[in-house]
Amino acid sequence: MSDNLKFEDRLIEHADAIGAVHGATMLASLRGVPLYATLTPIERLFLLEAIDRWASSRMHDANKFWVTEQFRVETENGGAFVVDFAFGLLGEATPKAFVELDGHDFHKKTKEQVERDKKRERAIVKSGVPVLRFSGREVWRDPYTCVNDVLEFIAKEKPEGKNG
């Protein structure tokens, strides 16, 4: 419990620093889902940073993007899976990148989990959307750089003729 409290304190401190708590809470409440109910701690931190960067991009004529957490992807055989985040450019419905965050505690795996993860990984590759993976430690230590890496990547994925 003390680790969870430390995390919540750090999350609130980070959110206060970027001014995103209010925006994140409003975004979640508009969807009718409490922000903290469906996301892991590192996903929460990553999302808060992404929301802050989204707000900044809207104020400037920078690379405007969208981000959706817990993004559902349909597979060719009629199944589906969920990726942690999908990022795209405004005006384009197709994601430019999927983001997966790999926390240590969440990914302790049985043989069955490993098998399911491998099948899921193949389905992601077949979708044609690149996947950027970050460790929980990377996100925890520097969420800004993690989100920035994604934004730099999707900016490079623009269709020809739209880079300037």
Walk me through the structure.
The chain is an alpha+beta fold. The chain has one domain: Endonuclease, Chain A. It is 51% helix and 19% strand. It has 6 helices and 4 strands. It has helices at residues 2-18, 21-30, 41-59, 111-127, 136-141, 143-156, and strands at residues 65-74, 80-89, 97-102, 131-135. A 4-stranded mixed β-sheet has the order 1-2-3-4. A hairpin with a 7-residue loop joins strand 2 and strand 3. Helix 1 runs parallel beside helix 3 and helix 3 (41-59) packs across helix 6 (143-156). It is globular, with a radius of gyration of 16 Å. The chain starts with a helix and ends in an 8-residue tail after the last helix. Residues 1-5, 15-31 and 160-164 have low confidence and may be disordered.
Features:
164 residues; alpha+beta; Endonuclease, Chain A; globular; disordered N terminus
Task: Summarize this entry quickly.
51% of the residues lie in helices and 19% in strands. It is α+β, with helices and mostly antiparallel strands and 164 residues long.
Layout of secondary structure:
Layout: H1 2-18, H2 21-30, H3 41-59, E1 65-74, E2 80-89, E3 97-102, H4 111-127, E4 131-135, H5 136-141, H6 143-156
Parallel strand pairs: 3-4
Antiparallel strand pairs: 1-2, 2-3
Helix pairs in contact: 1-3, 3-6
